[in-house]
Amino acid sequence: MIRRKLVSSLIFSSAALWCAACGANSNSTTKAAPATTAQPTVEVVKVASKKLAITTRLPGELLADEAVAVFPKVTAYVDSISVDRGTRVRSGQVMARLVAPELAAQRAEAQSKLQAAEAQRAEADARLASDQSTFDRLKSASATPGVVAGNDLEVAQRTVDADRAKVEATRGSAEAAKSGLKSISEIEGYLEVRAPFDGVVTERNVHPGSLVGPATGAAASSLPMVRVEKISKLRLVVPVPEKYSAGMSAGTKVDFSVPAFPNQTFTGTVARIAHSVDVKTRTMPVELDVQNADGRLSSGMFPEVLWPVRRTEPTLFVPASAVARTTEATFVIRIRDGSTEWVNVQTGEQDGKSIEVFGGLREGDEVAVRGTDELRAGNHVMTKPFVEAAPAK
User: Which of 162, 189, 216 is the last residue of a domain?
Assistant: First the structure.
């Protein structure tokens, strides 16, 4: 009897607990409020417009303003050479003397021809003078009728004309002989190898006794006697990428540095612009004049050039962090009327913390400071102006 009462009590308690739980679940379901999603807050900045004015680092090469490989003008032997690598020379200074024995024989032959021509000319002049005198006397005597036959006077006239022609011929021969001797003298002058301008000898390839010749034919591939460079002024050649070629102008001052003097800045002036892009490298050669009176810089150096990049027209800028990149697109997030838009852009040069953008943007548009693909197009957001943190002291 007691056992039955305990079982009934347990069943009743369980039923009561079950009903209480059902009631609790039913009440919680009816009283739960619908969930609401808060709109995210996005920091925004306005798209700015300005003219790009930055510097970028480009490689360059220093070349001598003038450089000449000196070859002799005649085939000869080196008798002496007074310069070597590093020697500074003045314009017209004798750097080497050559010897060519065959030139002496040619000079003697030319002098002999000139002497013979001069002798023939003197003989022709004397004959002309004699025959002219005879003709003059005959002509004077012919004034008296019957004293001189007319045929004799005509023969004398023809003899004078022939003598005069011979004199002209011998005069031409003498001038030709004189020109031949002058030519030999000029060739002998080539035996002295002189500096073409003020500069420094950067290469020497011959010694006394060396056989040298002009840079023609087979000798064209041979080394020059010496190489002279003018280094008081240098040419800095900069291959400027095509995208930086706009806005260049002659007279612009450009700074550069060289590894030999890492803590010093030098300056060159834009002097020559190729106005033609190399199709292989997509660069445009630009030459700068660099004054080098103290000779500290040398040709062949490879400077780092601080090249100025300028735009002729204003372009749009946004913070670099505003540009988002995915495998499919590069974009910024524009906020209009609290709604987000993805605007595809192309980026240009970076100016500090800002970067150039080209696309469907306008000056004054509001864009998210932090561009990310997590902020999908069409989302509703709240905006607040971006305030840059003050730099730490």
Answer: 189
Q: Note whether 105 and 185 are same-domain residues.
A: yes
Each residue of 218-265: pLDDT tens digit?
Answer: 544 578 999 999 999 999 999 999 988 887 889 999 999 999 998 899
Q: Is residue 232 part of a domain?
A: yes
184 neighbors 48 (Cβ within 8 angstroms): no
Sorted by sequence, the CB contacts under 8 Å of residue 62 that are 6+ apart come out as 234, 235, 236, 237, 258, 290, 297, 298, 299, 300, 301, 302, 303
- What pLDDT digit, counting tens, does each position of 280-331 carry? 999 999 999 999 999 999 999 999 999 999 888 899 999 999 999 998 899 9
Q: Are residues 292 and 357 in the same domain?
A: no
Domain boundary among 310, 343, 364: 310
Quick: pLDDT tens for 318-344.
Answer: 999 999 999 889 999 999 988 999 999
What length does the chain have? Answer: 393
Select from 82, 104, 115 the least CA-distant residue to 193: 82
What the block records as the tokens of 96 is 């080497």
Residue type, 74: V
Closest CA to 297 of 326, 269, 267, 327: 267
Global pTM?
0.67
140 and 172 housed in the same domain: yes
Total tally of structural domains belonging to the chain: 3
Q: Which residue has the higher pLDDT, 146 or 317?
A: 317
110 and 180 share one domain: yes
